[in-house]
Amino acid sequence: MPDVILVTGGTGLVGRGIKWVIENEPEGSRFGKRPGETWIFASSSEADLKDPEQTRKLFQKYKPTHVIHLAALVGGLFKNMKYKLTFLRDNNLINDNVLHTSYETGVKKVISCLSTCVFPDKVTYPLDETKIHLGLPHDSNFGYAHAKRMVDVANHAYKDQFGCNFTSAIPTNVFGPYDNYDLEGAHVIPALVHKCYLAKKNGTPFIVGGTGKPLRQFIYSRDLAKLFIWQLREYDDVEPVILSVGEDEEVSIKDVADAIVKAVDFRGEYSFDTTRADGQFRKPATNKKLLSLIGDFEFTPFQKALDESVQWFLQNYDTART
Ligand code: NDP
What we know:
Keywords: Isomerase, NADP, Oxidoreductase. This protein is an alpha/beta fold. The chain has a domain at 3-175 and 217-246 and 283-300: Rossmann fold (3-Layer(aba) Sandwich), CATH 3.40.50.720. It is built from ten helices and twelve strands. α4 (84-104) packs parallel to α5 (142-162). 42% of the residues are buried. Residues 9-15, 43-45, 48-50, 70-74, 94, 113, 115, 171, 173-174, 180, 187 line the site of NADPH dihydro-nicotinamide-adenine-dinucleotide phosphate.
């Protein structure tokens, strides 16, 4: 039986990363397309996964044997704080429809995408896969976080009651081509890239909110894509895996801004607005479980990944999500 892999959210940042890897890695290699595989990258225009009937029709059309479930209502801090109920309901509906339709149609394996937002606000660091349910998530995104946590709960319940092979991945902050550069809703890297681009274009200063000191782990969407493909082919356990660079590869927001200035070739005035709040200083997650299972894996150096992302943005400014 040929494998049909349905990627929900296939037109977003992470989905485009997977499509790129499948189309660009050598056929038959560890991360490349394998003979007999068909990959489907679905968007919301093909089926609104909040709707059970549209979800069923999508599954009837492609008859997937495997699902990488990325589709979600995603957003930065501002949107998460303002629309908590929408984030909770939309993501609950999407996840329930995808998991239940996968169960009903006999999908062999589902990998759903969580986020490090699922972890408790008050927790000991580094974050690891055993700490998801040990306390309440941060108040700013509790709608999104609770909906994502429930996927892990559902995966266990589907396994216990029906023996389903459903699991999940927990990426840290993702960036890359096809990111969301909308200044209102974007995550930190795409927001700063867009701001720096506008500062260069308009001859205005590039001002970064906060001190630049907080540290974060960023993963390039094309590296993350390979890790999803690995998990699809080589990992069969219900427990999630954190997909991230190591704790020793944290970068500061200043490092990020410096790399963007370089990639955009911005030569104007550049400063930090220290009157703006910084957020948490660090929230490191360990990738020990991933590395112990995958063996050798080479992450793209941060500056190279950022250069590629910025070049993509500059070349696609007219069609990018701005
Ligand atoms: P994007 O916003 O770039 O893409 C979201 C994708 O989901 C799009 O393909 C979109 O389709 C689809 N989608 C949204 N709503 C629906 C719906 N109602 N029905 C069907 N499809 C829908 O998100 P990312 O690629 O960044 O995120 C992918 C996954 O990774 C998500 O589950 C997210 O929670 C997770 N994640 C992301 C992180 C990040 O830093 N970006 C960090 C950690 C986890 P369309 O293009 O048609 O709108």
